[in-house]
Specification:
By secondary structure, the protein is mostly beta strands. It is built from no helices and seven strands. It is globular and about 50 Å long.
Length: about 80
Amino acid sequence: MNFVNTLGWTFYKKGSFILNKVHHCNEPTQISVTKKEDWFKIIFIENEDELILEIYNFEILINRFKVLSINENNIETELTLKRI
């Protein structure tokens, strides 16, 4: 699939990432400047029957997801999430 805009997570240490906003329509490809609101921390909460992913920006809970599936290969790990 070809996308004009994509969001990427660049992990700079365990459990922390920077959100990258990339625009592919023009040459050269453009990426947004990193701002305070683009820095996040991830916390996984494991219960007996589910895995929850919480995303924080400077100690404020931004989003909460239930992990529906995890698919791994040699190159990447893909998560399927449901916002809760």
